[in-house]
């Protein structure tokens, strides 16, 4: 069976082709072909195409729309030197990550017109994601006609959260209007939970998954179920992110609206111009922010007042400091929801690759007796336990494989 997976994130668009012979394996298979668009600006992306043989090709795409870039990416499946397949009819099923499934979808479904309408209706709540998923579904319809398509929702894993965690303390009417915490990155949180149990060789009662990518969220997982998470009605709540603010005092929004800001302006401000990018003024990308931080700043500058912070390096340092402060604060919330900790998982771009963010986060939990092996933490671990033998909780670095989880859901649907 050939399964094509499309995973549109806020800074990237990832696609994979898996070939499954016989029963689907429990551990992730290596894709036959992988391609990724990394968006540098709304009309400028880098395309990276990889084959199972390890060949890699890069292309710069400028002045392109998102739909054209995705069509071009998909052409590399059967054209050029990669040629993972001879013709499109070989594909049996296409799976899509869909960020917002609202109240209606608590598990993956076959895509129908009704499902497409629901994804479109939910677009204002996930404006950076749902429109891209719909575009992906429609491009596949154009290329492949009637091939079965499956939508796998980021919200599904959180759909059974306890009411006290899911319901906002606003007016009671909000519940009927569907204004509640949905939570996102559920495909990744669920995959990492299962993978953590596989790596440890046992299930654990109290687990926190830190999904730290361009979008970021934490989930408290009790006996394999999501019981609390930092993202909410939309993927804007919770942690500081690449370009998103995360939770801010809602009074700020009332103030800005009274000053004349429109809903669209606030949307742009909070979704695209805040977070690491907004504070640093440099980039949404933590790597660029860390490059900009001058490590040997004179001590006199370190306590600089907020208004005096003007140069790039100081703004970059402030962005990273706020990022860690918010991460630790939200971790405290998850920790208390669980009543303790048996295992902590780091995943996604920052969680998988930033040894310093992992080390500083774990340092804040040292009072619990949590200890990591610093040399192992620095050794680019993948799917490894980096806690010391005497640590009170295990600490795992897991490569998130949302695409593989989507492929498994497709297999089950067929
Ligand atoms: N080596 C690294 N060090 C620090 N941060 C990294 C590194 N590699 C990737 N990142 C971070 O990961 C982010 C992308 O995460 P990813 O999970 O791929 O994003 P998306 O949310 O689009 O799926 C980048 O913007 C960058 O901040
Ligand atoms: C839900 C979300 O924020 O996804 P991503 O991190 O892929 O942007
Ligand atoms: Mg992602």
From TrEMBL:
Major subcellular location class: cytoplasm
EC numbers for this chain: 2.7.2.1
Required cofactor(s): Mg(2+); Mn(2+)
Gene Ontology biological-process entries: acetate metabolic process; acetyl-CoA biosynthetic process
Catalytic activity: acetate + ATP = acetyl phosphate + ADP
Binding site for ATP: 14, 211-215, 285-287, 349-353
Keywords tagged on the record: ATP-binding, Cytoplasm, Kinase, Magnesium, Metal-binding, Nucleotide-binding, Transferase
Site label Transition state stabilizer, positions: 185, 244
Subcellular location: Cytoplasm
Pathway stated in the Swiss-Prot or TrEMBL entry: Metabolic intermediate biosynthesis; acetyl-CoA biosynthesis; acetyl-CoA from acetate: step 1/2
Top enzyme category: transferase
Active site: 154
Sites where the protein binds Mg(2+): 7, 402
GO cellular component: cytoplasm
Cofactor: how and how many bound: Mg(2+). Can also accept Mn(2+).
GO molecular function: acetate kinase activity; ATP binding; magnesium ion binding
Record HAMAP family: Acetate_kinase
Family according to the record: Belongs to the acetokinase family.
The protein's assembly and partners: Homodimer.
Function: Catalyzes the formation of acetyl phosphate from acetate and ATP. Can also catalyze the reverse reaction.
Protein name: Acetate kinase
Protein species of origin: Acaryochloris thomasi RCC1774
